[in-house]
Amino acid sequence: MRFQDKVVIVTGGAKGIGEAAVRAFSAEGAAVVIADVDDAAGEALARSLPRATFVHTDVSKMADAERAVRVAEQTYGGLDALFSNAGIQTYGRIEDVSEEDYERGMGVNFKGHVWMCKYAVPALRRRGGGAIVCTSSVQALATQTSVPIYAASKAATLTLVKAIAMDHAHEGIRINAVLPGSVDTPLLRGAAASFGPDVDATVAKWGKMHPIGRVIKAEEVARLVLFLCSDEARACTGAAYLIDGGLMAKLPVVLPD
Ligand SMILES: NC(=O)c1ccc[n+]([C@@H]2O[C@H](COP(=O)([O-])OP(=O)(O)OC[C@H]3O[C@@H](n4cnc5c(N)ncnc54)[C@H](O)[C@@H]3O)[C@@H](O)[C@H]2O)c1
Question: pTM for this one?
């Protein structure tokens, strides 16, 4: 019960990694604000938990971010942690990227962290300190074909995290990034579906590329997020934590048997 009497906001909390984090924070005693654009899934999840509230939040909009933080403070009396996690996958080579693709990709995946942190930092300060975790990706470090905007948004997130950490370490506000490999979520399954009908086979194939031989579970990412938001991680700030089943340690070299 590391989060008894604590208040946490999870963006993108209605599904996937965010949902797993919402459930894990709640199981350890937190009051949770679920900030998401999926009203039906977010409200159903909030109703199923003892102390949880859904707030319709498009993180790419500054006013929505402000409202999510205000709701946390008004409903539960303050804010102790933010898991800024909402993100969307976008594909397309640079010559095909439209202005709308750019605004959407950077808007959710990067600007979303900017607005959420802008309003969370003063709220955490009012509480005497706290923690923020932003979801980046292994694609901030190494990348693949057809993801220039997604990869750039994830790399920009890493730099944002380091810079915010520098400004607020002295007041007990810590901020870190998590960099998942492939995680079994609606996002990953949606991506797999766009490459063919056998989604399980595609997900399993992607899993085999990770040295642990499988994709990562959303609950496994949630465990890392809870650690980073807890007092056990009080010396951790401005850092990037891989949770990638060994993917970034791997060179594509195979020796002959
Ligand atoms: N699944 C993976 O393999 C993987 C790997 C690396 C990083 N990530 C990152 O993890 C994060 C979560 O991904 P996921 O796989 O759980 O995705 P998901 O699609 O399964 O869930 C994302 C949630 O974010 C919400 N969302 C989308 N746009 C939003 C917006 N503008 N404002 C608020 N909420 C919004 C969705 O409604 C959904 O509930 C993302 O930032 C993603 O880029 C995922």
Answer: 0.98
- Reading the block at residue 130, the tokens are 């706290």
pLDDT tens digits, residue range 64-117?
A: 999 999 999 999 999 999 999 999 999 999 999 999 999 999 999 999 999 999
Ligand 1 centre distance from Cα of residue 85 (Å) = 6
Nearest to 194 by CA among 41, 89, 103: 89
Helical axes 112-126 vs 62-76, angle rounded to 10°: 30
d(CA 152, CA 137) in angstroms, rounded, equals: 10
The three-point CA angle 155-201-250 to 5° equals 40
Q: Is the model's pLDDT at 175 over the cut of 90?
A: yes
* Ligand 1, residues at Cβ distance < 6 Å: 11-12, 14-18, 36-38, 57-60, 85-88, 108, 135, 137, 180, 182-183, 185-188
Residues whose CB falls within 8 Å of the CB of residue 253, separated by 6 or more in sequence, listed in order: none
148 near 94, Cβ under 8 Å? yes
Least Cα distance to 6 among 233, 231, 170 occurs for 231
β strands within the chain, DSSP E: 7-11, 31-36, 52-56, 81-84, 130-135, 173-180, 183-184, 216-217, 240-243
Both tokens of 28, joined, read: 């350890």
- Note whether 20 and 49 are within 8 A (CB): no
Which residue, 102, 8, 120, is CA-closest to 62? Answer: 120
| Domains along the sequence of the chain with CATH | 7-181+218-246 (3.40.50.720)
Residue with tokens 């009080």: 234
